[in-house]
């Protein structure tokens, strides 16, 4: 099993020359966490990241101090990373960064995450991807209806990635601001309300 | 920090004389997991338990095998344990067992969980508690509007628990069946649709 992306990202060394002023070297996960905290504080939405699922094998109980997990393993998530409620609607999304400048590799998504997003749509929820092209410093909200198309094409031997140009055209650029960092809900306003 | 209830429960030794046929010694968490799997398989709802939040301190990377977490600690959850979507509505709940026969101790709930449930209601979601009296083998769906009342009374010096009789009266008994184990959504149907 690979070390999950979220953890790796926070340890990642980004050369300072690649950092833009707007991005400030923050990972997409950090940006989304700050944004969700802002939305919650402003009483605009209740959206949280789910904890990384971990299989616990051994726990040690020292006297007079906290239990220590001494052996555990990362598990693959069975759903997407983020969900919650906004304007009475169920919101569900997955966020991914890529270092590619030309395409988003579908290997970043798992089959059960696709199935989960299809179920959310079936039940009248709002599901989407937030995709960041790290080197380009561009972050897009990308509708799952497009994602499903590329996913299904891949299953029948099609390309293994979504071209950057497709995401630029069919997706919605999310501007990076001071507060909230990435105002993805204003795009949801335009698309769904 | 205390070892989280969910893990402790699954290791718990329940004397066989206390087990009823309907309960079969399953923990509330196991019953809800089975029920949610059934709802998902039947395409009735998409509701999942959030993983236990864990703070990772040390990870070891052996060659040619999975990363091992060698030091980690349990963190307190900032929200409730379960959420998802049902009939287009956002669903959010916390599930707790008590061995008391006379009342449900409010110490089982944290302030930030109450705040989270208040936010869910503010945003037109459906929030509730599932409370099991283990020794009585009775499981109730209990609306948060009642919970908030007892919580607020406690804050101003009131009692530290909700009487069993109150939960029996204001709550809704969930029958334990073969499939789904605890059909809590049929009660949600009556209350909200």
Describe this structure in words.
- Two copies of one chain form a homodimer.
- Chain A has six helices and ten strands.
- Chain A has a single domain, classed as Trna Endonuclease, Chain: A, domain 1, CATH 3.40.1350.10.
- Chain A has helices spanning 5-11, 28-41, 111-122, 144-155, 164-170, 184-192; strands at residues 46-49, 54-60, 68-74, 82-86, 89-98, 103-105, 126-133, 138-143, 161-163, 172-173.
- In chain A, strands 1-4-5-7-8-10 form a six-stranded mixed β-sheet, with helices on both faces. The first copy, chain A, has a two-stranded antiparallel ribbon with strand order 2-3.
- By secondary structure, chain A is an alpha+beta fold.
- Chain A is globular and about 60 Å long.
Sum this structure up briefly.
The structure is a homodimer of 193-residue chains. Chain A is of the alpha+beta class and 193 residues long.
Indicate the radius of gyration of chain A in whole angstroms: 18 Å
| CATH fold type of chain A | Trna Endonuclease, Chain: A, domain 1
Can you identify the CATH class of chain A? Alpha Beta
Question: H/E order of the elements of chain A?
Answer: HHEEEEEEHEEHEHEH
Compute the average pLDDT of chain A.
89
Examine the secondary-structure arrangement and name the CATH architecture of chain A.
Answer: 3-Layer(aba) Sandwich
List the chains of the largest interface with their residue counts.
Answer: A-B, 44 and 43 residues
Proportion in helices of chain A: 25-40%
Give me some keywords for this one.
two-stranded antiparallel ribbon; 28% strand; 6 helices; Trna Endonuclease, Chain: A, domain 1; alpha+beta; 193 residues; homodimer
């Amino acid at each position: 099993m690979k070390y999950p992306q979220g953890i790796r990202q926070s340890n990642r060394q980004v050369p300072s020359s690649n950092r833009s002023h707007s991005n400030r070297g923050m990972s997409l996960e950090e940006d989304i966490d700050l944004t969700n905290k802002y939305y919650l504080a402003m009483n605009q939405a209740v959206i949280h990241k789910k904890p990384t699922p971990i299989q616990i094998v051994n726990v040690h109980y020292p006297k007079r101090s906290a239990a220590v997990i001494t052996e555990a393993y990362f598990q693959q998530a069975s759903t997407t990373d983020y969900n919650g409620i906004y304007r009475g609607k169920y919101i569900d999304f997955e966020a991914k960064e890529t270092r590619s400048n030309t395409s988003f590799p579908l290997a970043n998504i798992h089959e059960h995450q696709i199935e989960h997003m299809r179920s959310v749509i079936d039940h009248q929820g709002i599901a989407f991807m937030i995709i960041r092209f790290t080197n380009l410093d561009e972050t897009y909200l990308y509708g799952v209806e497009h994602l499903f198309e590329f996913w299904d094409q891949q299953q029948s031997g099609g390309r293994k990635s979504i071209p950057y140009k497709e995401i630029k055209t069919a997706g919605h650029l999310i501007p990076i601001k001071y507060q909230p960092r990435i105002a993805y809900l204003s795009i949801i306003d335009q698309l769904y309300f």
